[in-house]
Amino acid sequence: MMYTYGTKVFTKLKGYYGEKEECLCCHKVYKKAYVKYTKWCHFNEIPLFPINVTYYKMCPICGDSVGLKGKQAKSEMVATDATETQQLEAYAKHILANKPKGFMSVDSSYEFYVKDLSTNEEICVATNLTKDMVKDMKKERGLKNFKIIDA
């Protein structure tokens, strides 16, 4: 019988907090997303106990982020006035026309989008992605409801 042990990171989007501010990377003006990263010790893929918890204050568009300590992140989230909500949806498009042909070819025909539901603005974040890269971006942002659209 084989036993496996190690660590695994779980991510969770806690919400959008704070005042709207311009991102230094993409220059879009939105509230920052707070994402909780929890590293768990596991045995045979069963999480046993958390080892480390880190929060990231992240731009919801480009994903540029800053790490925060738990107390600092929680105090920033509590101090936020929640009168104005921010509604964003992230999804990927699979451009079937660009699908590669041939043996050992890599399908890099995915595009990652973020849509502002209040203004209906679609923002293309990245292009020429593989399906694994799209999944990594989804996990990095702590997203649960995520769809891939065939275009």
Task: Give a description of the structure.
The protein has helices spanning 70-78, 131-140; strands at 5-22, 29-43, 46-58, 65-68, 88-94, 110-116, 121-129, 147-150. It has 151 residues and is mainly beta. It folds into two domains: 1-83, no CATH class; 87-151, no CATH class. The strands form two sheets. Strands 1-2-3-4 form a four-stranded antiparallel beta sheet, with helices on one face. Strands 7-6-5-8 form a four-stranded mixed beta sheet.
Estimate the helix proportion, in percent: 10-25%
**What's the pLDDT, averaged over the residues?**
89
| Number of beta strands | 8
- Our estimate of the beta-strand percent is over 45%
* Biggest sheet details: 4 strands, antiparallel
Point out poorly predicted stretches.
none
Please report the distance between the alpha carbons of the first and last residues.
46 Å
How are the strands of the largest sheet arranged? Answer: 1-2-3-4
Structural class: mainly beta
Radius of gyration: 18 Å
Number of domain units: 2
Query: Helices and strands, in N-to-C order?
Result: EEEEHEEEHE
Our count of helices gives 2
Shape designation: flat
SSE order and pairing:
Layout: E1 5-22, E2 29-43, E3 46-58, E4 65-68, H1 70-78, E5 88-94, E6 110-116, E7 121-129, H2 131-140, E8 147-150
Parallel strand pairs: 5-8
Antiparallel strand pairs: 1-2, 2-3, 3-4, 5-6, 6-7
Brief digest:
This protein has 151 residues and is mainly β.
